[in-house]
Design a protein that fits this description.
Strand content: 35-45%
Radius of gyration: 26 Å
Number of strands: 29
């Protein structure tokens, strides 16, 4: 952040561009105006607390899912949120061309997907690291594998995409084993990174071996015939289910054909392979009621995978935004507590962080999530979960300062409301949060501290 001389005294009204010089850092200072007006101004600062807030769960936004560094896969039956499912389209691509396998006999065919174990996020003042799995990892689930029956294009795919599937070519039933595995390769015992192995139908494998030589002449020819595979979780046979991350751009994830006793053809999922995640969320009646209702709810629900976000209305902020005086916002802070009344045996931990966003001005039902420059984005605030207080704290000093200045210059109040959501990270994190939005108990606090410039 830029440092201004704290001994400088400013008189009269500050021009807009000078006030917005403080917008140069991503994480907001808790006293954003002090560098401009001096520490002594706090003695004259006005501190107000607002409790007339309205919280309601609404449907989350769709988002682009075909450029993820890793993908997620699995199914969860959440006792509060309902069923969440993460499905996946992968596209094996050749690393060796010009081969002819006609006349060979398939022994077995497998799809291997290497797990992505941890996510690391730069929090500015610290590095946050957390596991990329969610739910009951000891659960047993069933995943069906189908042939993709459409061409994957270079266009963007949305999180609610539904692919055209062809015949079923295999299935997996079991749990996600995130431990390293040992195998014997060429007579030597080796340790491999954690992965899941899905046995596919031999008929499907034999069909690939019988492809004519033209199909193996290039990847363009190969994907005309073998367009991709679709993995769709079907059911949970034990536990509440789980969702994990898999590396779909890692060549260790591959389609492997074993034939003629000792030969193998590996068709990897590399950087050039297309992949698409898509998600389904079927909510419980208590959440569906809020999504279709109106008014304020004392418990609200935030969920990733295009599930839900929380709409937060704060009409009392208008009293500051519409002030016809020059002010500096020293601090604008929203504190939100989580509901801890339910125990899920550690299977549904709190989201490591949340976003506080504003509506898209062209479509108020959508969050303004397309942020080109977060470092200078006044609409954006994020908070990391504080386990000691069971809360998230958001600062929106810059945004409120901009709103007040815009109103003074144009007479327009551009504030609508906030949205609270799980970040659309890369890979997506399958997290959710139950918000204690009971404004009568102090679990939600909205404080603004500002100084008049006279």
């Amino acid at each position: 952040m830029k440092n201004f001389n704290k001994n400088t005294k400013i008189k009269g009204c500050l021009p807009l561009f000078l006030l917005l010089l403080v917008c140069s850092c991503k994480k907001e200072s808790t006293n954003i105006g002090l560098d401009l007006i001096g520490d002594e101004s706090l003695a004259n600062a006005i501190n107000v607390e607002y409790r007339d807030l309205s919280f309601r769960t609404v449907a989350d936004d769709t988002f682009i899912v075909n450029d993820l560094s890793s993908s997620i896969l699995g199914i969860i039956n959440d006792p509060v949120f309902g069923e969440s499912k993460a499905s996946l389209v992968v596209q094996p691509q050749l690393t060796e061309t010009g081969i002819n396998l006609v006349g060979n006999t398939i022994d077995s065919i497998q799809l291997e997907l290497v797990f992505d174990i941890r996510q690391t996020v730069d929090a500015g003042d610290r590095i946050i690291s957390y596991e990329l799995n969610y739910g009951d990892i000891q659960s047993e689930i069933t995943i069906d594998v189908y042939r993709l029956d459409e061409d994957l294009t270079d266009e963007d795919y949305s999180s609610n995409y539904i692919p055209n599937t062809g015949v079923k070519v295999g299935e997996y039933t079991g749990r996600f084993n995130l431990d390293s595995i040992k195998r014997e390769i060429d007579g030597e015992a080796v340790t491999l990174s954690p992965r899941m192995t899905i046995d596919l139908d031999d008929v499907f494998g034999q069909e690939i071996l019988d492809y004519e030589e033209l199909v193996f002449s290039s990847n363009d020819e190969f994907i005309k015939v073998m367009k991709g595979l679709v993995l769709v979780p079907r059911s949970i046979s034990a536990g509440n289910g789980a969702i994990v991350a898999v590396e779909t751009t890692n060549t260790r994830s591959s389609l492997s054909l074993f034939y003629s006793d000792s030969l193998e053809l590996s068709i990897p999922l590399g950087l050039g392979s297309k992949r698409v995640n898509f998600f389904e969320t079927n909510h419980t009646p208590i959440i569906d009621e809020q999504k279709m209702g109106a008014g304020h709810y004392s418990k609200t629900y935030v969920q990733s995978l295009g599930g839900t976000k929380v709409k937060i209305e704060a009409p009392q902020l208008d009293s500051i935004i519409e002030l016809n005086e020059a002010i500096v916002i020293n601090e604008a802070k929203l504190e939100i507590s989580i509901d801890t009344s339910l125990n899920f045996n550690g299977n549904f931990e709190q989201a490591p962080r949340l976003w506080l966003l504003t509506p898209d001005t062209s479509n108020l039902s959508r969050s303004q999530t397309l942020i080109s420059d977060i470092a200078n984005e006044v609409r954006f605030s994020e908070s990391y979960y504080d386990a000691t207080t069971n809360s998230y704290t958001f600062y929106f000093n810059r945004y409120l300062q901009q709103l007040q200045q815009t109103h003074r210059l144009t007479g327009n109040n551009e504030f609508n409301w906030f949205y609270l959501s799980v970040p659309t990270d890369y890979p997506i994190t399958p997290h959710r949060v139950i918000v204690n939005s009971d404004t009568t108990t102090g679990s939600v606090k909205l404080n603004v501290k500002y100084t008049k410039l006279n």
